Each structure stands twice: as structure tokens, then as C-alpha cells.
């Protein structure tokens, strides 16, 4: 016997009809159990409420409550119940009402087993689809919840990196994932253990896991004072998002110093830390992370095993002009590419435009190190080795120790950008010269075809826009202008040395439209093709 899947309620005011429907099909053999019969609409509502059937087969015309009213009431507490209406009236309005109520079928009396069976098959088929869909949805929800730890960490990472800036979207995700972030103040502590590159790969992996585990346990002990969220950014660097809510006595400075002492004692390693300022909006967490990382850069010249507090770098000013690494990188990319002397001058002057920092050696050194850092990143992205361009990019770290003035810093920054730009542009010109030759050769060999800029650029594996840019930069004309010159030159030759008609010459040099060819020829030669031929 098939496993019982569905419960059936039969409603009809005639006992013989109820008994007939109950026996006309071997219900259990198709996975359906007749759980009850009801003699009218009110009886049907009561039994449906008690037994919660999956299917209802009901007459329409009944005392106390007709089939339509009964089903309308039942769907208030069983919205997914499947309904089959039966009636001895072949009534259009009945059928229309059944359709409006999303009935599975409308079967006329006397009931024929095969007709009822066809309708029941639709019900069971739909039920199986719904069960499968529900199981798939439940499986997806289970997998989603199993991945909540990963999703929580990813959300914290996205907030730190500034990938999500919409405040409502952030809080909605926090609520959905059950993350304990609350309104209050936020700060970020960046932790990095020194001498990472000197370790074996096995120790790197081991330390990465153990240090994060220890930081998490340390934060748990402080959880009555603030909320903590620990993310491993890289194998040697961790970010701790600190959420301070209602505990003014909590000291980030004391927290970082105690954590550093315990980490050093536990692992016998030295650790450097960058501490951000505190902000009161969740959307400013990205700024906290940027500040913590910027502060940590001071390890490069002040040494390892120290805590670098961002606010100390800008002490003496209420509104420090923090450098954005992303915008700095983009500005330097432009300057490295163009080598624009005037723009490089403006850039260097703008770095120290705020007079509040002109007497702050920490800030001056911070700016210089940020420039060096971004230049190195940009060069690496271009697959260039810094030491193959200039020794200054590394020697500059030492030279910045001996800065005598802001003007000295400006000059060294400008000279560094000039030297890198000169190298890159020189290399570009050598590479572009080969590309230009490929493009010219292709146009000379294929000028008679209907060419587009995309067709030409494709031969050098370049985008149309970039191909046009470098071609004009090197030759002074665009690709289409150069192609037109070739075509007009060929047309002039054919006009002088052949008897071909003008429209035939137009086709041979790549113009489908004779009138357009004449217009272009006249624009370049100040006369029509026939006038040019007559003058030969």
C-alpha cells in the first residue's frame, strides 16, 4: 500500500453522494486518505478546522452554507487547501466562480470515476511539485543558516572595506544575519605580527589560525564592555572592529596595550598595531579601518613591535585631512601615465596645503610613506619591478629620515614621480611603435574592405577606444583619418592611371556609396574625382 500523503474531506448534503465519492476510487492506493465526510457547509468548516485536510471535494448547492461560502471561510485558515467542486448543474456562473476561487476542477454529477481521477491526478501532481519546491527551499534555508558564520564575517569585511555604504542596507543585513552590532561608537584596531616573511609556510598557516583564535578569546573576556568582531585580513594581519555602546569607561588604548602584551607573551612574537579614532555611524567603519591601516604604515620607519595611534599623528588639529589610499592611488596612476609637469607640481603642493600639519613630522612622514606605498602598488599592478626603474623608490625610505623641510619632501616626491613616468612613457612608446606598425600594415592591406575601428583594433588585440587613443597620440591622426588618407591616395592613383569609372574606383577603395566617396574626395582634394581626372 502506498504511503498516505494527502488527507481528503468530502462535503455533500446527500449521504449517497458522500458514500459514492468515498468508494468510487481506491483512495489509499493513490496515497490519499478520506479523513471525514460533512453534510453541509457549516459541518465542512468545522471538520476542516479540526482535521486540516489537503483536498476538499464539495458540492455547491447545500443548506446552511453553499460550497463557495464554505471554501471562502476555510481558506482563511487553510489557504493552500486544494478544492474540487461537484454539481449536478452545468451552470456557467458556477464554473466561473470555481475558476475565480482557483479550484482544481469542476466535475458534473453523476460522477464518472475516470473524470474525477483525472482531476485528482492534477491535485497529486501539483502537491508533489509543491512538496519538492518546499523541500528545496528548506534545504536552501538550512544551507544558508549553516553558512551564517561565513556570511557574517563577509559582511563585517564588506563594511570594513567600504563595499557597502548604504546605512539601511547595512543594518538590514546585520539584523538578518543576527550580528550583535549596535548603535554606539565604532573603532578599528589593525594587528600585524612582525617577521611574517621569515617563517616557514607551515608556521605561517599555524600562527594565522592560533593568533586569531587567541584574539577572539581575549575579546570575549571584554564583551561586557564592548562588542568585538575579529577578521583575518591577511595571514599576518587582523582587523578588530570594536563596537562601544554605553561604556564610556572603555579605553581602546588600554585594550590594545593589554592585547599586545598578552600576544607577545603567548607567542613570543613581536606585534605592531594601528589604532583608529572612534566614530558614531556604522557607515564610518570603513574610515576607521583606513585610519588603522594608515597608522600601521608607520612601522616601516618607526620600527616593529609598537602601537601607532592615528589620532596622535594628527594631534593639534580638530579636523585632520586623512589621505584616501584609493584616491591617492588613482591620482598617482594618472600622473605616472601622463607625466604632466604642471599636474605633478599641483599634486605635490596639495599634499601639504593644510598649514595645521606643516610642523607635524609624523604627518609629513606619513604622507611620504603613503606616496611610496601607492607607487609600489601601481607598479606591481603594471607588472613592473620598482628596482628596475629607479633605486630611489627603496632608497627613499631611508632618505625620508633626513628630510630637512616640507619643500625637501615635495621635491623628492616630484622627482620620484617624474622618473617613474619617464620610464613608463618611454617603454609605452617602444611598445606602441610596434602596435602602430601592425595597425598601419592592416589598413594598407585591407583598405578596400568595409572596415570599422573595431575591426582594425582587433588585429592588435586592443579595445577600439584605446587603439584610437595611442594611434592618435603617436601619429597625430585617428585610425579612420589614416584609413581615409590611404583610400584617397589609392583613388587618386586609379583616377590617373586607369579607365575605371568613379563608382568602380569608390568600390575598390572601400566605399559602398559613390556619393559619399565623392564628398570625402572633394573634402581632401578640393575638387571632385572627375575634375581631378581631367587635370591629369
Kindly describe this structure.
With 536 residues, the protein is an alpha/beta fold. It is built from 24 helices and 10 strands. It has helices at residues 15-24, 41-51, 67-74, 92-100, 113-146, 148-161, 167-177, 201-221, 252-267, 285-296, 299-302, 310-313, 325-338, 341-351, 361-381, 386-389, 392-399, 406-446, 453-458, 464-475, 479-497, 502-508, 514-525, 529-534, and strands at residues 6-11, 32-38, 55-59, 82-87, 105-108, 185-193, 227-234, 237-244, 271-275, 307-309. It has a 5-stranded parallel sheet with strand order 2-1-3-4-5, with helices on both faces. Strands 7-8-6-9-10 form a 5-stranded mixed sheet, sandwiched between helices. A hairpin with a 2-residue loop joins strand 7 and strand 8. Helix 13 (325-338) packs across helix 18.
Short description:
By secondary structure, the protein is an alpha/beta fold.
Helix/strand layout:
Layout: E1 6-11, H1 15-24, E2 32-38, H2 41-51, E3 55-59, H3 67-74, E4 82-87, H4 92-100, E5 105-108, H5 113-146, H6 148-161, H7 167-177, E6 185-193, H8 201-221, E7 227-234, E8 237-244, H9 252-267, E9 271-275, H10 285-296, H11 299-302, E10 307-309, H12 310-313, H13 325-338, H14 341-351, H15 361-381, H16 386-389, H17 392-399, H18 406-446, H19 453-458, H20 464-475, H21 479-497, H22 502-508, H23 514-525, H24 529-534
Parallel strand pairs: 1-2, 1-3, 3-4, 4-5, 9-10
Antiparallel strand pairs: 6-8, 6-9, 7-8
